[in-house]
Input
Amino acid sequence: MRTTLSILFTGAALALSAQNSNVVNAYNYMKDGDLAKAAEYIEPAIAHEATMGKEKTWRYRGDIYKLIALGTDANLKSQFPDALAKAADSYAKALELDAKGDYRKENLAAMRSLQAEALNSGNDAFTAKNYDQAIALYGQSERIAKSFNEVDSNAVFNSALAYETKGDAAGAMKRYQECITIGYNKAEVYRYLASLQKKQGDLNGAIATTQAGRKAHPNDKEIMLDEVAFLLEAGRSEEAEVSTKAAIEKDPNNAVLYSVLGSLYDAKANPKDGKALEEAEMMKWYDLAEQAYKTSIEKDPKFFDSYFNIGVLYNNRAAYIYDKIADIKDDNKYNAAKKGADDIYLKAVPFFEKAHELRPDDKPTMQQLKKLYAKTGDTAKYNDMKKQLGE
Output
């Protein structure tokens, strides 16, 4: 029996010695720069009960694969394509086994360097338009950060961009939402998410996201404009008016906002539901629209939309009067009323002319000017507009 026990004891000692030798050999080969050989020796050590429970075994393994992952030897990297993942897993295991925390600082520092490598490699893959690889690397960066109780918000956001750029709207929206959940709630996150929601047909969802973005970033001009645009598209004009006025308070020199406000007032003067307004009510909204358009022009004398829209506004006001006086039988009264309508109609001329100057190829502007020149009897300008229109 003694002989048998001796043999068993000797065998166990030899096995332990062999595994310890593997760890030492792996370390020595690593120091000599032969990383492939180092990896060859360290792998048996992590699988053997004699050495698999030692912090040092896993730390050395992490060091070996980290050097491969962060190195410049392309052949070696192709031989060990999962080196970065193996390194990260090894350091995580080393941290777990390091009960006294003797090497905690070193292991954490190594993991941070791996996380940075994963993130930067993901960025490189993104730049190279290899979006699937970029997403995988960003995911790796997230997992490494999570292993030491941190959140890599940059990786989450960048992966959202990668999903969106590759055309995976569902994946992108999920990741943008995660950005907001983890506190990476920059203005562009809300804007990109809302834009995708709108493209997917979820206009109300886009509005809700934009409104959440405005709460988080009350002074962001782009989110304000997005909200107004989405509300207008959804036909929620009353909310759009409130949001536009709030945006003007934050950005009082924004010509676009005044132009939007003018269009909202203009729409109130001409309700789409066909409901007739009292003349005084209609003219009130026309006056407010005119004032808003003129303010827009004051803020930006080169803003085409407001010149064109105020011209259309005068057309609409004149058209209302023309319709109103059509049944007047008395020639003197009719001519007097018609002159008033003509005067309003012709007020559009300088505004359409300025719009034409700003956008010489805009056909609706040229068509309006052709009609106006016909009205004024300006034959030269009328013929010029016809020529420009190719008529």
Remarks:
- Residues 1-16 have pLDDT under 50 and may be disordered.
- The longest helix spans residues 2-32.
